[in-house]
Amino acid sequence: MNAPIALDRAPLGTPLVVWSTHPDAAVARRLSTLGLRRGATVTVVQRLVAGGRVVSVGGGRVALDAGVLAGVTGEQA
Question: In the 8-state DSSP scheme, what is residue 3?
Fold first, then answer.
């Protein structure tokens, strides 16, 4: 088992299994509707300005800001 890492620090192109979602319940619900829920496999595919990232999840891509990414952790798949 690998140590969990926040998605804002995850390396590009490395598949990660979501270990925990955002601590804010409303944000966690919204992320869940986008496919970012515990057990989902995500890959950070692009870095954006100001720390945001584009992540691939469930066949789609989602752009997230650094604050949201910092609250989601995963471990290497």
Answer: P
Domains identified in the chain and CATH numbers: 5-76 (2.30.30.90)
The DSSP element (H or E) to which 32 belongs, if any, is helix 25-33
pTM: 0.88
In this structure, the number of other CB atoms found within 10 A of the CB of residue 62 comes to: 16
Considering the chain, what percentage of its residues have pLDDT values greater than 90?
92
Is-contact 64 35, C-beta < 8 A? Answer: no
Using DSSP's 3-state secondary structure scheme, residue 4 falls into coil
Interatomic CA distance for residues 76 and 67, integer angstroms: 21
